[in-house]
Amino acid sequence: MISDIxxxxxxxxxxxxxxxxxxxxxxxxxxxxxxxxxxxxxQSKSWNTFVVKIRQNTIYKFDFSVILSYKDDGNNLxxxxxxxxxxxxxxxxxxxxxxxxxxxxxxxxYQEKGYEPEGYAEVTEAYSDWRxxxxxxxxxxxxxxxxxxxxxFV
Length: 154
Description:
Layout: H1 4-12, E1 15-16, H2 19-23, E2 28-29, E3 35-43, E4 49-57, E5 64-71, E6 77-91, E7 96-105, H3 108-112, E8 120-123, H4 130-140, E9 143-144
Parallel strand pairs: 1-9
Antiparallel strand pairs: 2-3, 3-4, 4-5, 5-6, 6-7, 7-8
């Protein structure tokens, strides 16, 4: 289990990612032909390993996920934050339905109840496509892309 305090430390951990990587994102069609995917592994300044993954439906462009995962010492991936497009999501503990863009975050209480660790989500108006979701993740999760201007790729 990853505690809420550990999650916050992982989010605050400085994650260097070259602007050239961000600017060069070109998701490729996966074998199932239904999704475009892209992923990138990086090490933080404190030597934690993270994976950024983007997935977008080829038919419905608002069905996407921009994911920040943490790779633990056993090479297990833990989704820390997931920035989703439009679909209906239900927070199982709160029993409320969300329709629209939303952000998932891993929580202790969802792990303790045996639900998907990042099963809790909140509605957002911070983005309207996967590039905007990526921009939001970069801002919220302490990515360091140098002195680059984020507006160059959004």
